[in-house]
Amino acid sequence: MRVPSAQPSIVRRLFGLLTAATIALTSAGAARSEQTPVGTALVLLADVSASIDAGEYNLQRKGIEAAFRDPSVIRAIWNQPYGAMAVTLVEWSSSQAVIVPWTIIRDEASALAFADAVARGQRSSLGATHIGDAIEYALSVLDTCPCRPARRVIDVSGDGVNNGGRRSADEARDMAVTLGVTVNGLPIRDPAEGDVRTHYERHVIGGLGSFVAEANGFDDFARALRHKLVLEIAEVGPSFAAFYP
Q: Cα angle at 93 between 67 and 171, to 5 degrees?
């Protein structure tokens, strides 16, 4: 039987497409293997909604800065798998913005460099409290991390309950859990905002080892965040909180 003359060109074309796909997959695998292995990839979601005034915002920002200057946090980073973590700071309200991009922290110098970058940041918005949209955005940010993390964590801090947005907090939390991401919460107690802690416990946190650590007002934010970061990085959860003052 005579093979049509067009047949070899089709075969060559299919072979070329297969070769290109193989090269693309190999390149993607090589890129992943070249990424820095870290114990934890952490997205810090900081609330900048309209309920947070300038003074409260400064206390929150200074609390984040202070946490990464704290020796207990730096020791926790050293003691986790690979002796390193990746962290980024994202502000959220009814919109979201990356304030400090992904930073690999493995020693005091890199921790202090991240703290310096936090100190230089400028407030990004004054919107509504859309926790669900913030978590969904954090998931997309996790996908951009130049790292290979042993675990992925989203840390949501805020002083109010979810009050709108494209996604409910429950929906976004469930998306995160399905993807193997842990969502922890740092509610900031404010009598004017109601029982924020219970809202976080029921609708925000989820995933392996997830927990809530409450700040007793913005004056207590720095202490609460430092304490919570040590627990998160050490991956011990609230049951061992007494051993990590």
A: 100
